[in-house]
Amino acid sequence: MNGAKALIETLADCGIEYCIANPGTSEMHLVQALDSVPRMKSVLALFEGVCTGAADGIGRMTGKPAATLLHLGPGLANGIANLHNARRANSPMVNIVGNHPHYHVGFDAPLTSDIETLARNYSCWMKSCSTSASLAQDGADAFSASLRGHGGSKGQIATLIMGADAAWGESPGPAKPNPTPARPKVDEQAVGDIAERLGNGEPSALLLEHHATTPAALEAAGRIAAKTGCRLLNGTFPARVDGGPGRVAVERLPYFPEQVLAATAGIEQLVLVGAEPPVSFFAYENVPGRLLPDGCALSRLSAVDEDSIDALERLAETLGAEKEQAKRFERKEIPAPEGPLDTRNIVQAIAATMPEAAIVCTDSGGGNVAYPFCQNTAPHSWLSLTGGAIGQGGPVATGAALACPDRPVLALLGDGGAAYTNQSFWTQAREGLNVTTLIFANRSYNILNVEYARLGITEAGEIAASLFDIGNPNIDWTKMAASFGVPAAKADTAEELTALLKRSHQEPGPFVIEASGEMGR
Ligand SMILES: Cc1ncc(C[n+]2csc(CCOP(=O)(O)OP(=O)(O)O)c2C)c(N)n1
After folding, report:
1. Quick check: pTM over 0.70?
2. Confidence class of residue 518 from pLDDT cuts 50, 70 and 90?
3. Cis peptide before 238 (omega within 30 of 0)
4. For burial by CB atoms within 10 Å, which of 11, 215, 249, 302 has the most?
5. Is any atom of ligand 1 closer than 6 Å to the C-beta of 81?
6. Are 382 and 213 within 8 A, CB to CB?
């Protein structure tokens, strides 16, 4: 057996089910290995940003890593924006990057580059010196590293840079999976300290992120809130929150710094649970970067790598909150909207037609605005753009649909963001994935107009305006989707949009809706 086959067998034994690949010559032995290990499903993507974003979607929905297969430094570089987003999401991933054999690197052949420098940015674990004898064990170690929480914003991406000689050389065979790593538990002192702080009657809030947004964590947090009156907050762009009717009611922090300060005004005690203190997405002159209300005390129950579920459950117990009833989102009837399309009635159409158990993936565009309006519709999982690098929503939706074939997936994408990774459509068509993509086709990088206006500039000059305008030439999303094999239609009115959403939710397979009308020109 060669190293490549031993690696793939090992990763499959560890539990990896998908390899999202864009291969090249240096990975041919790995392709051969994938060919002989069908229990690892190989999925082709036409751009590496789709590979990495889809692996992120699988990680968020299953809690297990998918593998990627990328071609040397340039292939990796094409995938980095979504690796950045995945690192911010703490998504587990085993990122395999092919390389020349070690003896060939020194010849400086055309595809040679410093892969480690690229990979170091977002990897919690990296190895580039595997031999054919060590490759399988290195794969098992990469898998374990991706499942371990790592401090700060290191993320959970393990990058294995695999020389072709390690792949084609003789291997002793697959390695045994390592024991599953456990998250460290917070000490009793932290739990007691927070219980005391929450018990003193000050207006308080828990800021819940990452492991603390999992359903079990939110259940415990809901009981704590019911007992102490504290508020429950998520950050602006959480990796995944399961919300909707019946789920614990959590508030989400808004985007702009002034809005965050207004939303948190009056909180005197902010407790971080798997979270960091809130900061402004961008820096603005004369606006604080750290967004804490005046005089607010900050404390920490758990760090990102620690067991936030256990910490919250123990906190609930210490507070005597085990029997409390959490406040939950309720179901309400949302009427279908009418009239010409604008962001408001697009959001209303999304909410009015939300299918049960949907997985909603947002990027730039109006999707994020839809979040609060969808909490009273149907239970769902909501996956946000975690690292601000647009072009993530389509790939994440693709991965989520691969991982959860029984659930409808709804990708809500700005036309600007969608144009970064439109190759997602092709993988969705090829794999028959049940993804409805709604494009907010305003023909503009609209948020940049808003940000420009925040500088106090009332009139954008001709050049500035042209840099925010994507309507010239106009992108025909229905033709683009069709050319990738995905049926598509355009909606010019709220009634048409509602009908198309309903139709798409009923039919299997991918569908693209261009929400256009008066939003565009
Ligand atoms: C990788 C990357 N490149 C550029 C940007 C800067 N950027 C932020 S939003 C945006 C435009 C988004 O346009 P669209 O998706 O149409 O949404 P809209 O703002 O119109 O709602 C751009 C270019 C970014 N965030 N990430």
Report:
1. yes
2. low
3. no
4. 302
5. yes
6. no
